[in-house]
Amino acid sequence: MNKQVIEKWIADAIDKASFDEPLLSAVKYVFSTGGKRLRPLMFLEAYALGGNEPNEAVMNFAVAIECLHQYTLIHDDLPCMDDDELRRGKPTCHKKFGEAIALLTGDALMNLAFTLMLNAAKNHPKAAEAAYEFSLLSGGSGVIGGQARELCAQDFKSEIYDIYRKKTCDLIWASVLAGGIMGGLNKKFLDGLKEYCFNFGLAFQIYDDLMDLAEKGSVPEKSYPYIFGTEKAVEKVKICTQKAIDALATSGINSKFFEELALKAAGRKV
Predict the structure, then answer these.
(1) Are residue 14 and residue 122 in the same domain, yes or no?
(2) Could you tell me if 118 and 131 are in contact, meaning their C-beta atoms sit under 8 angstroms apart?
């Protein structure tokens, strides 16, 4: 499975959603600004580890994951959150369409995500269970909870690992867990993938912070490189990457995709 296939399914899902303007234009704009589609690809890889070929229900679930991810980015960029004017070099949704429409665009994508998951549940026996677990990890005790803690943290240094775990790692793990559930993976594989996801997610977030530092010359005070310094951040990325790869080996998971993904998160060319 590749990014181009996912892009086609995303476009089809948006067309079928029949959004009114200006929501339709805003949603299309958000998806046109790029992105790795990392989480749906990880979902599909976990599903494939069970020896499965994706069907319509599985692809709908993959699109749902990306819809929910995009909603988190739109809301993250809002003035009341990170107040970012650019994402991937282009104006953020609220700079392009206004704050109110950006807020509603995020809401619409979150709703579409669960519409697609519920639709998938009509045609896949494990999709409802996957959607339930995904909703827990992406909600107030997971991703949204992590965002809230980041905003309100009084001592970010002491909370940074838990905030990163919830804000970044939980959505990665939610995606992979959903794929594993729908793909029928056993507990040993799921445990190994969970260990992989939390180490990969931490490496991914810190490396992202380092890239921001390299590109912008500065990072927010609430970031790993700012608190611990660049040298320690680089070392932490290496440690977490190796732990992620080791988790695959220990669990007997043979996935070139997941291994190369971890190395890329550490800035390695593969």
Answers:
(1) yes
(2) yes
How deeply is 7 buried, as exposed, middle or buried, from its count of CB atoms within 10 A (0-12, 13-18, 19+)?
middle
- Verify that 62 and 51 share a domain, yes or no: yes
Range of the domain at 258: 187-270
| Token code pair at residue 109 | 């994508």
pLDDT digits (tens, 9 = 90+) for 130-165: 999 999 999 999 999 999 999 999 999 999 999 999
Give dist(CA 62, CA 248) in Å, integer.
22
If asked whether residues 53 and 164 sit together in one domain, one would say yes
pTM higher than the cut 0.90: yes
**Of 135, 132, 199, 133, the residue nearest 165 (C-alpha):** 199
* Residue 119 to residue 108: CA distance in whole angstroms: 16
Write down the residue that tokens 């998806």 correspond to. 31
Retrieve residue 81's tokens: 């959150």
| 181 and 256 assigned to the same domain | no
Q: Which domain CATH number covers 68?
A: 1.10.600.10
Residues 14 and 133 grouped into a single domain: yes
Phi (first) and psi of residue 94, to 5 degrees = -75, -25
Tokens coding 243: 């732990």
pLDDT tens per residue, range 32-77: 999 999 999 999 999 999 999 999 999 999 999 999 999 999 999 9
Token pair listed for 236: 């932490």
Burial of 225-243, coded b for 16+ CB within 10 Å and e otherwise, reads bbeeeeeebbebbeebbeb
Provide the domain count of the chain.
Answer: 2
